[in-house]
Design goal:
The protein is mainly alpha-helical. It is 61% helix and 4% strand.
Amino acid sequence: MNRSAAVKMSGLLMRQLRGEFSLRGGIVQVRHWSNLNTSNTTKEGQKTYQPSHTVADETSDNSDKSKAKAIVSYWGVDPPKISKQDGTPWKWNCFRPWETYSADISIDVKKHHLPANFMDKFAYWTVQSLKFPTYLFFQRRHMCHAMLLETVAAVPGMVGGMLLHCKSLRRFEHSGGWIKALLEEAENERMHLMTFIELSNPKWYERALVFAVQGVFVNVYFLAYLASPKLAHRIVGYLEEEAVNSYTEFLIDIEKGLFENLPAPAIAIDYWRLPADSTLKDVVTVIRADEAHHRDLNHFASDIQCQGHELKDYPAPIGYH
């Protein structure tokens, strides 16, 4: 190798090394220079905390401490520590104490909206035509029927609330509280499902049925709400009427002893503020009351629009479960 080639090679090596290292009292890596400059401030700003206690059992909590990993927060957002009125830790992350309520069970179980025009008749017979296949499939298996019913019933509120939300943004106007009312309905229906999941484990073909029904219903209801919100709400009103009827049959079979009156799951006791010794009959009773309230809310929403008004013109019944 001649002298000029050696000089070029050494220069190339020095340029490469200069990008990797810098001399400052020794060899220091500068590839992660931002870490070196902010290491002290970052460590001071970091907060490390453990997840909030979500299980009341102290023995299991102590055994899990060794397995739990610390969560590093750069923003200092600590999880709130929530307790019940008796001082015991609140163990639900899916809902909070201020979202619980005592259900109003003073409802008219047989209340029915008589079809008055073509739209009402179309909505009514659409629901009736969908009802019979499900009854033939589930027959007296009320728990499985209820789980499928809730996976469908939780869709309209979310779809309607989303579309009203987008409408409010487009028109730069308030919704009259109807966005929140419909989202409350969707969340309430989802909590019904979370309750029944504690009592039963659906089989694989029932899960497959939920996938198929939900995939179709979400898209069909989305298009129906875009085309005619008053028709969409009327259909949901009649769906909720059938839900009330289904839960009434469920209660009748429990009273006859055809279905075991199991203890109420803990999630239902906390969500509906039920007594500690409540049973499945009490849970079905409050769920039926919720469905009756959803029935009234959707028929009310359809009536507003059928009379030529917009939902925002009338205050929504927020908290009307």
